[in-house]
Amino acid sequence: MSLKFAYYPGCASKEITRESSDTTLKVAPLLDIELKEMPKANCCGAGLLKDYDYKLHLAMNARIFAEAEGMGLDIMTICSTCLMVMSTANSELKNDEKLLAETNELLGEAGLTYKGTIDIKHFLWVVMKEVGAEKLKGLVKRPLKGIRLASFYGCHTLRPSSVLGFDDPLNPTSMEEITAALGAESVDYDGRTKCCGFQADLVTEEVALAMTAKRLLSAKDSGAHSVVTPCPFCHINLDSYQSKAERVAGRKIDIPVLHFTQALGIALGLSSKDMGLDRHMVPLQDLLDSI
Amino acid sequence: MEITVKVKRCNPQGNADCKPSWQSYDIKAEVGMSVLEVLLDVIAGVDPSLVCRRSCRSAICGSCAMKINGRPLLACDTQIIEEYEKAGRIELEPLDNHRVIKDLAVFQEPPWDEFDKIIPYLNEKDKDVAMTAEDEHAIDASQKCIMCGSCNSVCNALEMEKNYLGPAALAKAWRFVGDVREGKKEKRLDRLSQEHGIWDCVRCVHCTEYCPKDVAPLSAIERLRDKAMAYGIDDNHGAKHSTAMVDSIRRVGRLDEAAMTFKTLGLLRSIGMIPFGMKMEMHGKMPHPVVLPAIDGIDEVRKIMDKREEEKKKEELD
Amino acid sequence: MVFHDVLIIGGGLAGLRAAIEASKNGLNVAVISKVYPVRSHSVAAQGGINAALKSNDNWEDHAYDTVKGSDYLGDQDAIEIMCKEAPEDIRELERMGAVFSRDADGDIAQRPFGGAGFPRTCYLADRTGHGLLHLMFEQIRKYEVTVYPEWFVTDLIVEDNIARGAIALEMLTGRFHRLHAGALIMATGGYGRVFGITTNALTNTGDGMGLALRAGAPLMDMEFVQFHPTTLKRTGILITEAARGEGGYLLNSKGERFMKSYAPNAMELASRDVVSRAEQTEINEGRDINGCVYLDLRHLGREKILERLPQIRDISISFAGVDPIEEPIPIRPGMHYSMGGIMTDKDGKTPVEGLFAAGESACVSVHGANRLGGNSLLETIVFGRRAGQSVTEYCSGSKVAAFPKSALQDATRKAAMIFERDAGVKSSELLERVNSAMMECCGVFRTEEKMKEGLDRVRAVREDLPKVTLTDKGNVFNMELAGVYELEHIVDLAESILLGAIHRKESRGSHTRLEYPKRDDKDWMKHTLIYKDGPEMRIDHKDVTVTRFEPKERKY
Ligand SMILES: Cc1cc2nc3c(=O)[nH]c(=O)nc-3n(C[C@H](O)[C@H](O)[C@H](O)COP(=O)(O)OP(=O)(O)OC[C@H]3O[C@@H](n4cnc5c(N)ncnc54)[C@H](O)[C@@H]3O)c2cc1C
Ligand code: SF4
Ligand code: SF4
Ligand code: FES
């Protein structure tokens, strides 16, 4: 069985959290997943475009879908925000003929149309549902034995469940199931399904950082060795901004944050360099040494 | 079926740091019984001192929202046996983000105080405007709100910032801003764009997820933001952030984080970020600060955007 | 002490509409409500509100339907006012911001309702009451009406037949407050909780009727209690008429459409009293399924149910655990509406000076012996407004009466006494006794013997009232304490319903007596009044006003 997708890493994973996409491209073949780049794909707007102009947001997203439709493939992303933004737009377009027609009128300006035939999936979802924990177990080269992970789902991985709906928005289990297959233990903690604060970083920074700190501290206090997240934006706040969050919290936090893809990569035997682990702001060496 | 219902009880009697404690009641549940019915049985038969608000029993008055097994639900609209079979337990707690009055009853400042802040009534236009089915549709979801407080109880922004208006009040605000008959849209949007208004939302989607009436407060907030910017009310970080994103897409087809930071925060605050930026740079985390290459087919993007701008010019604001 | 020109007791549609009117007229108005106003029972009304809006409809037809529906007991002058003023009231609601469902032409859509000769019921999907109540709540913010939310009125202060204010228990703190007022409007809604099975909210305990009765105002036509044919078994939650309108069947335990023996033409769509009587007969004669009959929608098919009756499906699933696509819904007649209430004139005045009433707690009377669907929301709006208007006139024409000094003390002393009692009975037990007495003895079919038994049982509960004790001895949000006051009213109202029902020796509208199966216009074209101005309740009469429609036999 070979799975094939149009690959949409999202803007963050192409730049700031490039390590996540780099890792994905190395992990995917090991899982028999073929990823086709989308050279034309634009930014989904991360919701900000929707705030600015709803119809433009639909059109820009439809442009992405049209490219995938042209390739005859569903989209796979490794960004939760892209997942949520694209999936809700896609669902609105698919369920409202009038909206689809209006959107196509805009796309027509660039000679494009979207027929409403594709689906969007997160890598986490593909690993969980289409690769499966069993198969994954068999591929593990370097079990994450003795490592306690705090899965940080990220809002846009789970909600709105009426559109995304592959895991329970309150008590999700997919991350835990997968990291268990990789040999790690999981901790339960208060911030697990809450917001990292990213969307407020540039708007109400103090609030955002206080939120980041609160989530990290609840993970840390639950005894986790590391946080693991399927969303690059969460990663930016939890890792890149951890030192700023520490300042707001008035307390050292110091907990490494893995991309979901890296947790896979480590267990499947990729090298630190392959996964860009040196790009993290919070050092990972102790964690790696303990595996 | 016999079920043990655990209730988190607290009777502060004015004392703010009252410690809640769990109390268990063994009850008999029949198929079709709601959590509220069971509570009423407990109150009538076992413990009349247990407090929960209730009135309609049919999910429309908004009295009985509480945390059931960790998430906000209407007690009268939750089948106890079903819930028990799903979760293996029944644990009832007062809503989060609200101060407890007693047991399951909480103070209702949110949403009522916030409700007042959004000018909660229609300001008629001078001329009579007839409403069409489509006009009705535009505000239909936001009209379904029963003021149960569930959304506010799970709002991540409200958790951190008590002064935020919150999803319930903002959904209500859209009910007016989105109404064709409303005469003071701009004034409303201006107020809503101020501190702790529409731009405090961190888009965690909790409100939309847990609203028992499908009000989708987040969609209302997104629409308010859209309308506010259409009115040119953009002198705030939130609007600037969005506009910067649009500029970035027009220029290179994708997110240009460095440029966005600059445009959102302005020169001075951006400079303030330089030492931090340098630290990120060391880890290779500062994206092309000067030129980010454009995506293939950027022309298509621009054409679509131009066309939409043209369309927007024709759309009347009122 | 706080003073308001007008104190309105009740934050449902009638109370808030009155508040808006009085406040527009420049009065200092306060609304006091035992629940947050939008939690009031009005919020649950689904079906809609009647008005002759269309050019091919007219208010006289609306009036005729209403008079006929009332089995000729409604006062026709009041009915004329209601029907004539309805269209302008609806348009005014729209100007305030009401949203109604629209038809293809963009006009306010109107649906057919039982007993009406024309589709004249305006609606907002299936949440008309919700839309209107939230609208009224918005408007009282606009007119800066003071609200005392979750304040429970325990006493009306009336001396020398003049209303002076009220005493209320603030739920949050447990403190009693004096509220001095130039005039009072009672808008406390219905008394559904007198009965065990009712469509009414848990808060509908008829407090206002009980308070007014004690204050010397008469209650009128209390024997007329509407039973709705389709309510869910255990809870009494309403399944609206639309289920039968769309073609639902009623089946007995043998699987027969039993309506063929009661109303062979109209079948399931006969009027509410007829259908309720038929169901109760089936149940009494043993063709029931655990005390119910079935409402069967399965033959309508999945698609039609999902498209036309989604709300009914949701309610059945949520509250009865039954998906009507797969299974029939067990239903039975349940108490739904109180036609009777505090006697008022067309402007909401009661015989007590400065005491007004509107809405379901009042009896104008526009519903007579049987209310038509969609007329009661209309009543709250029309007569709420009119009460707000006439209270303005009253306030400008009369001096404010003093508030007696001892009133607050009396109230707190009474509460203290309840708190102090140690051994005794729980109020929930007494409530259960009244509820079952009323269900068994004063339901759809009534006999002298049963009603007298009911009266004895209710009076026995009254004897036990002084023994009620509390488990909750705290001050904060003591709902058990409030429940004791509610129980007192429930007992008074149960007794007044039974007295009226025993007294009225005929069958009319919702009041069906097995010994007197016929309507008797010669002796009973009159309203029943109940007074409690001495230790015992006493009965009196008032003539029915007939203007243009002479009584004739009711056929549908
Ligand atoms: C399920 C259902 C559906 C219905 N559907 C329709 C319909 O489609 N169309 C129609 O015309 N009618 C309908 N009705 C009837 C209609 O809803 C009611 O008659 C009407 O809403 C009553 O309004 P109200 O303002 O008189 O009282 P309510 O809305 O009941 O308000 C009573 C108020 O009094 C307050 N109160 C009571 N006691 C006290 C106290 N002691 N102290 C302080 N405050 C107190 C309460 O807090 C509340 O605010 C329906 C009724 C039911 C039960
Ligand atoms: S999406 Fe916004 S308003 Fe809704 S819960 Fe999250 S932060 Fe609050
Ligand atoms: S928006 Fe939904 S969750 Fe929030 S108060 Fe209204 S009904 Fe409740
Ligand atoms: S009791 Fe009214 S919403 Fe639950």
Structure keywords:
heterotrimer, B: 318 residues, alpha+beta, Ubiquitin-like (UB roll), Fumarate Reductase Iron-sulfur Protein, Chain B, domain 2, 3 domains, five-stranded mixed β-sheet, two-stranded antiparallel ribbon, 14 helices, globular, C: 556 residues, alpha/beta, FAD/NAD(P)-binding domain, Flavocytochrome C3, Chain A, domain 1, seven-stranded mixed β-sheet, 15 helices, binds flavin-adenine dinucleotide, binds iron/sulfur cluster, binds FE2/S2 (inorganic) cluster
A few lines on this structure:
Chain A has 291 residues and is of the alpha/beta class.
Task: Give an account of the 3D structure.
Chain A is α/β, with parallel strands linked by helices and 291 residues long. Chain A has two domains: 120 residues, Glutathione S-transferase Yfyf (Class Pi), Chain A, domain 2; 157 residues, Rossmann fold (3-Layer(aba) Sandwich), CATH 3.40.50.11810. In chain A, 49% of the residues lie in helices and 10% in strands. Chain A has 15 helices and eight strands. A four-stranded parallel beta sheet of chain A has the order 2-1-3-4. The two termini of chain A are 31 Å apart. Chain B folds into three domains: 105 residues, Roll (Ubiquitin-like (UB roll)); 122 residues, Alpha-helical ferredoxin (Fumarate Reductase Iron-sulfur Protein, Chain B, domain 2, Orthogonal Bundle); 78 residues, no CATH class. Chain B has a five-stranded mixed beta sheet with strand order 2-1-5-3-4. Chain B has a two-stranded antiparallel ribbon with strand order 6-7. Chain B starts with a strand and ends with a helix. The mean pLDDT of chain C is 94. In chain C, strands 1, 2, 6, 7, 8, 9 and 16 form a seven-stranded mixed beta sheet that branches. Chain C has a five-stranded mixed beta sheet with strand order 17-15-10-20-21. Helices cover 36% and strands 19% of the residues of chain C. Classes of the chains: A alpha/beta (291), B alpha+beta (318), C alpha/beta (556). The interface between B and C is large, with 58 and 55 residues. Bound molecules: flavin-adenine dinucleotide (FAD), iron/sulfur cluster (SF4) (2 copies) and FE2/S2 (inorganic) cluster. One iron/sulfur cluster binds next to helix 5 and helix 7 of chain B.
